[in-house]
Amino acid sequence: MTGNVKIVINGDTYELPVVVGTEGETAIDIGRLRQMTGLIALDPGYANTGSCKSSITFMDGEKGILRYRGIPVEELAEHSSFIETSYLLINGVLPTKEQLNQVSMLFNDHSLVHEDMQIFYQNFPRGSHPMGILSSMVNALRSFYPELQTIEEEINITVTRLLSKVRTMAAMSYKISRGHKVVYPRPDLSYCANFLNMMFDTPVRPYDIDEDLVKALNTFWILHADHEQNCSTSAVRLVGSGRVNLYAAISAGIAALWGPLHGGANQAVIEMLSEIQEDGGNYQRAIARAKDKKDPFRLMGFGHRVYKAYDPRAKIIKKMCDQVLLKLKIADPLLDLAKELEEAALKDDYFIEYNLYPNVDFYSGIVLRAMGIPTNMFTVMFAIGRLPGWIAQWKESIDDPDWKLSRPRQIYTGSGKKRYTPMDER
Ligand code: SDX
Could you say which architecture CATH assigns to the domain 74-402? Predict the structure, then answer.
């Protein structure tokens, strides 16, 4: 479909332009709807509304397709590294060897965080959730790194600082929460190996870098790196539209990702599977509850706003579960339970009717558990993976000629005009 569409309102005909994407997705451009007709469009949750044109990630929900800058995520998961994929998302092309080396050196140079930040961490109550800490500390980075004069220089150094320091900040919150000595990044370790070392190295038991786990972590973060206009990415774009600094916009994205309907689902899946296990492994009861409209329970890790087919990322992570557990010689009963639950759900008419399949979060907690990541840090792991996507989307938004302050309208359904009621009349 090309050209225009016509709408008739009170006998008047209006023409609105049609926009067609690379893969044939089609939209009605309502940018002038209110100006032309006095009407607005209403779309709670924006399920039918595109917020922007983007050249970063393509998803086909019906076919279960996911591509970063045109490259299928399956190929990147198999051949790329998280840093290389981050470069691709942010710069639009795969880096040369020289460019990749340059980025690795920059990440090394900027991997430390200001020593004063440790005081911040130590003053969070012990039980603080790592996502709340990460969101606060990323926002605090602006205080330690004031804005540079040239916007180009400011953006490049901020992007480097965020991508490099987020690992250090995440590992630091884990170590301090356990009362352990903070482990510093090492210049001789790759991006993912450094993170695992900062998390698990201790003075009494040096961490033994397992290259299979480093590869699994690269793949895990590649699969989480971007996902077009999801809730947290939209938060980054919306907050960024006010022209606030990137640290603050990313901090908003972390907060949005925390919710159990979004990135917090990976933690919620493990909690759900553990409850089912404690209930004697009765996954049929969980399926029955998920179908019961009177029960607010949802099968966590199932369903998706866009995918109405198997999430391609879940397929890869499911396979990764078997590989990592085999390598570590771990038998996790929750993996067996997850597979039984998936098999039963995919045969159930309700899940078939609603096109509910496992999403990225259904198996990811199993892999993270096997790596030794504590459950309350699962969403932090998602945030580290999604950071390059948030940055790429923010950069695209500030370079977009159509970019302006995001400010949706509403339909008011409250009281009509009435006078102020004095206290003695209430
Ligand atoms: C992520 O957007 C992204 O790209 C996100 C993400 C990314 O990479 O950024 O992919 C990451 O957030 C994955 C999703 C993780 N969340 C969960 O696993 C939580 C469980 N899933 C659901 O809450 C739900 O599927 C959502 C929130 C993910 C999507 O829901 P929608 O698109 O808003 O659909 P809906 O809530 O309107 O549900 C439609 C129907 C409803 O039934 P009716 O009220 O119409 O009768 O499907 C039912 C829902 O009750 N339904 C479920 C269900 N998911 C939807 N019923 C039971 N269990 C579920 N999991």
Answer: Orthogonal Bundle (1.10)
